[in-house]
Each structure stands twice: as C-alpha cells, then as structure tokens.
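Weekly puzzle thread! Below is a chain. First person to post its structure in token form gets bragging rights.
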Amino acid sequence: MVISSPLHHETVFSLEVIRSTASELVRQNRLDRQQPIYTLCQFIPARQWLAVERELEMHDYLLRDHIIDLMNCEAWDFQDPDGCA
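Winning reply:
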C-alpha cells in the first residue's frame, strides 16, 4: 500500500508495494529478474524514489541486489497451488 505521510508530505512505499510492482513489471517483461533493484527507478517518479530507497534499506536490501531477491516465490505448473513446494 502507498501511504501519504502528513508529517513529511511525501509518499511512503511499503515493501509489499515495491515487491508487487517489481513482480508486475517482470510479468509484463518490462524488467528481468536478474536486473539490479535500482532499475525499478525507471518506473517510479524521481520525487518518490528516495522513499523507495529508504524502505529497501530498512529491510536490508541493496540497490545492486537482483530483482528476484524482492520477489516472493512464484507458482510453476509442477508445484502446489500455493506456489511454494
């Protein structure tokens, strides 16, 4: 969920929003799982990127980490319906 902070007048991105954004961009073939996380900045307005960086840092992600590190397990045809076998 994207939350507006009344104290700082900036948008705060939750880790879940960042993860879902990354997953959606990968599904659309706009990003590759092996690209670094900082490539997400192409799809997030510059004025909001600092909030994304802060959220990632709080969860020990580095901008050079791969996008796949952000993504939850994915469902494959041979796995269970929950996506994790």
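Puzzle host: Confirmed. Bonus trivia for everyone else. Residues 12-69 form one domain.
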